[in-house]
Amino acid sequence: MPTVRNQKTTSADRQPENADIPSRLGGARIHVAITAFLALFSIVGVALYGLPFFYDFMVQDFGWTRRKVTSGNAYSKLLVGPAFGFLAG
Questions:
Q1: Rounded mean pLDDT of the chain?
Q2: Which one is predicted more confidently, 52 or 48?
């Protein structure tokens, strides 16, 4: 069998220089996803479940009833939620 010398390679035979970029970005993508999850987890956790901790202090300091404090929290979520939802698209 004869050997072939000076065989030209076409662009279809070569891999682009940046072919390994998706494999290198895999770790960065996971890092970004985990960071985003933890940030949202913290923000939502504090906003939804951290505020009731302060209800008793608001009742004592401001002289409000517990009903006013909790309904104020609910009204704020009902007004702010659709507003930001609309702005977010």
A1: 79
A2: 52
